[in-house]
Amino acid sequence: MRQNDLDELRGQVDELNTKILDLINERTSVVQEIGKVKEKQGVNRYDPIREREMLNALVQSNEGPIPNGIVEQIFKGIFMSALEIQEDEQRNALLV
Amino acid sequence: MRQNDLDELRGQVDELNTKILDLINERTSVVQEIGKVKEKQGVNRYDPIREREMLNALVQSNEGPIPNGIVEQIFKGIFMSALEIQEDEQRNALLV
Fold first, then answer.
1. ipTM for the complex shown
2. Inter-chain CB proximity A32 and B65 less than 8 Å
3. Which has the closest alpha carbon to B35: B96, B70, B78, B87?
4. Per-residue confidence in pLDDT tens, chain A, 96 aa
5. Partners of residue B19 in chain A, C-beta under 8 Å
6. Helix (H) or strand (E) holding B28
7. Minimal CA separation from B60 to chain A, in Å
8. A81: which chain B residues are within 8 Å (Cβ-Cβ)?
């Protein structure tokens, strides 16, 4: 009985993992679009003020159980990845 | 014109941020449930084999643009957070 509960809960986690991944990928695609617009404007991609605003908005809408400090930690990782990917792409473009 | 594009794209990012946060919170709640079942079974919460399986499944379903290495990095952070939160709760329960 309990093993079934565990399997059922694990199935839920697997489904959530995939949904989270899809959304983070979707987010990264939009950030790439933003990067292209900024490039045309000659503006720097990294915008610490915008990053702070996003973190504040996230903390404000956070209903838990994840504490705000860890929310910030996870999202800083997600923000950083999106920037890293763009830098890699830029570097590769320069190498072509 | 371009500023409007940027605002529109940023709006999309804000929406995605909130959706991602909600799903990570939902995931954490399910992991807490799993923790309770495991506690009753006297089984250790941290399960590196299950973690590896989840990472493999994520990498397999990853359609990009995030590279697999960064997908693993982000999700290891998410997995770790869920464990940390449970440990904190356990510690607090012992202190009551």
1. 0.92
2. yes
3. B87
4. 567 889 999 999 999 999 999 999 999 999 999 999 998 888 888 899 999 999 999 999 999 999 999 999 999 999 999 888 888 887 887 876
5. 23
6. helix B2-41
7. 10
8. 66, 70, 73-74
Contact B17, A75 (CB under 8 A): yes
Domains delineated in chain B: 2-95 (1.20.59.10)
Contact between A87 and A67 (Cβ < 8 Å): no
Distance of alpha carbon B58 from alpha carbon B75, whole angstroms: 9
Tokens of B87: 């440990």
Count Cβ atoms below 10 Å from residue A21 Cβ, excluding itself: 22
| Partner-chain residue, chosen from B26, B31, B81, that has the shortest CB–CB distance to A70 | B81
Going B64 to B65 to B68 to B71, the CA torsion angle's sign is negative
- Which residues from B are below 8 Å from A22, CB to CB? 63
**d(Cα B10, Cα A50) in Å, to the nearest integer?**
10
Query: A75 is written with which tokens?
Result: 């999202």
Q: Amino acid identity, residue B18?
A: T
